[in-house]
Amino acid sequence: MAWVVRGEFRKLWIGQLVSASGSAVTTVALPLVAVVTLQASAVEMGALAALTIAPHLVFGLLAGVWVDRWPLRRVLIWTDVGRLLLLGSVPAAAALGWLSIEQLYAVAVLTGVLTLLSDTASQTMIPSLVPREDLMRANSAALLNLNLASTLGPSAAGVLVQVLTAPFAILVDAASYVVSTIAAYLLREPSRAPAPERSEVRVSAGLRMLFGHRMLRPLVVSAGIAAMAGAMQGPLVVLFLIRELDRSPAFVGLSMTMFGAAAVAGTFIAPAWCRRVDLGHSYLSGVFLASLNGVALFTGVTPVILLGQVLAGLGMSLFAVPQRTLRQALAPPHLMGQVTASWRTLVIGGQTVGAAVSGVVATALHIRPTLLIATAGMLAGLLVAACSPLRELRDLPEEAPAGRSMA
Fold this sequence. Notes:
Layout: H1 7-37, H2 42-58, H3 60-69, H4 72-96, H5 101-129, H6 135-164, H7 166-186, H8 205-212, H9 216-233, H10 237-244, H11 249-277, H12 279-299, H13 302-330, H14 336-365, H15 367-386
Helix pairs in contact: 1-5, 1-6, 1-7, 2-5, 3-5, 3-14, 4-5, 4-7, 5-14, 6-7, 6-11, 6-13, 8-9, 8-14, 9-14, 9-15, 11-12, 11-13, 12-13, 12-15, 14-15
InterPro entries: MFS_trans_sf, TM_effector
Keywords: Cell membrane, Membrane, Transmembrane, Transmembrane helix, Transport
Membrane topology: Multi-pass membrane protein
């Protein structure tokens, strides 16, 4: 991706790639610290998982307000330094014999808040670092970081935990923030318009922009519904493959690897696909492909299951790149942080609801029907977009006038 990973964007991209890779290790290592080192109970593990997500729901809207008021480069630097210290405290406490589940709770919450701020700031900064015509390819490059990290990170984490033990595997993530901090420090942040009056920077501004814009409104409703339905399916995949179909753990790993590899490939394909079929149809086709995974799992046929994983990974990139690009292209610069944070709050909130509901529905109806319900939910999100102006969207619309939404 040398055609876009250059200039100041290269520094942001490298820093985010390294930190995302380290975070993927901690995603596996932190629960293992709780289970193996601290002998955590099921209740404590549930609390740890919930506290990891909680900052996005509790502070999501506020994060947008803060990011729009603060220098973005400073946000990136201090959030990296904060995560370095927080994660470094885990192996330090383990070495001294002081580690406790309460410390892991605190680390989960505080790193979650800092990650929320960092992710919001980096997404807000991208449109100012690349020309408008390169925005889609820049988002593709940014998503490549996440897909590579989520695909390769868990495998690397398993090796590191085996060699170093779980607490010291987290040192890899802590070290990644050293690199990320240096990259952020070297970054030259483009000048921003003077900060708006405090009355213009408030919690509801991002939501009003999303729901007041004729293009963003169906996009956020569609994405929210699809995210909630997709999250209904996520927690059931391993359970279904192992218990219902009696597949081996190796098969589960293979299916997830194929999903990740397809998602990585999709980030390279997405910009060209958007140009070929247009922006709106790329989003629609991506959601459609991702929705097929539930049906593929339902069949119980091995080749079909693997094909479904590939299509789901590919589809995820095909819809994520255009939706990110549209959001960044249409939000006024002075509201970019709030729009980004509002979007993340709604989508992650939808995923939280979907994941919570999936167990209840699967218990009542069994797993197979729940997989079909999840597919139907994703198709409902697709229908919202297909019946909106998004269906006719070919290229990026004109930039939104600064200071007001386009109703």
